[in-house]
Amino acid sequence: AQKIIFDTDPGIDDAMALLFAHALPNIDMVGITTVFGNGTIEDCTRNACYLNDRFNMGATVARGAEGPLTRDPVGPTTVVHGEHGLGTIEAPADQPINIDPRSAPVYMSEMARAHPGEITLVAVGPLTNLALALEYDPEIVNYVKEVVIMGAAFGENGHRGNISPVAEANIYDDPHAADLVFTADWPVTIVGLDVTHQSFFSGDYLDKLRDGAGDVGQFIWDVSRFYLKFYSERIGVDGCHVHDPSAVAYVADPSLFITRQGPVRVVTEGPAIGMTIQKSDDQFYHHDQWSPSRAQNVCVGVENERLLQLYWDSIVSLA
Ligand code: BDR
Ligand code: CA
């Protein structure tokens, strides 16, 4: 099975993705690293410990960054994920916080070095921990197998942003970190709004999961209530996009996605802060800030039905 460290800011869809990674037989989630984002670092770490314990995931949890590298903090997205990140579900106040003594970036570096070429970093929150890992251990690029992130938007199918007209939330929360991660010399695959807005968990799909997938199905239904309320009130649809689980799906079965190659940069200031741009490999420009960095993979197409089936089969197998 593919070893992953799952870097996350739980987060409702983060919880859905964690359960997916836990369920998939070809994924071995050795670690969960936490980052601020949907909630504070305290809430996100408590939620990660709660999910890891409650569903016997058996992962090491390491705590990460409490804020972005240099920009002013944006603050938790309580309107989407609720007061403490998991909608109306509250991790108990006395939840044991069993965390590794190492910080998330140090844990990533040591794990990558202990298992050269075997660890995929799957990051579904702001990319601060990955950027700090690059700073702490620049050689980490030679030890990590691959980096797969949920974040960004490149204008495929009209999707440019969800937190601003031109920025996706995870990139907007720490654009400097994202630019470092995308321009580092390691292979990155970006699963952004271009594809996550092509997939949809309908209200009906989640009802069926509740009825057919035991405790875990019930939990996914419960945790998604707040999220679905946001979607129905703000976007006018019954269901939600498949954000963070799509990054896990890419690791489990890359054939679900169509990708495009080219170097990627991030706008780090001004009104377009957090905007992501990919230059296609075969273009030439006179003023080019892209070419020095390696080509990365951007997902531009997804087989939605197959993705929903894979999620279904995996979650049901836990029942
Ligand atoms: C991303 O932002 C967060 O709200 C979600 O958990 C997801 O990682 C979607 O833009
Ligand atoms: Ca997330």
TrEMBL record:
GO cellular component annotations of the record: cytosol
Record keywords, A-Z: Glycosidase, Hydrolase
Presence of the UniProt keyword Hydrolase in the record: yes
Gene3D superfamilies, alphabetized: Ribonucleoside hydrolase-like
Record GO terms (molecular function): purine nucleosidase activity
Domain annotation Inosine/uridine-preferring nucleoside hydrolase: ranges: 4-308
InterPro entries per the UniProt record, alphabetical: Inosine/uridine_hydrolase_dom, IUNH, Ribo_hydro-like
Protein name: Nucleoside hydrolase
Organism: Ferrimonas sediminicola
The organism's taxonomic lineage, starting at the top: Bacteria, Pseudomonadati, Pseudomonadota, Gammaproteobacteria, Alteromonadales
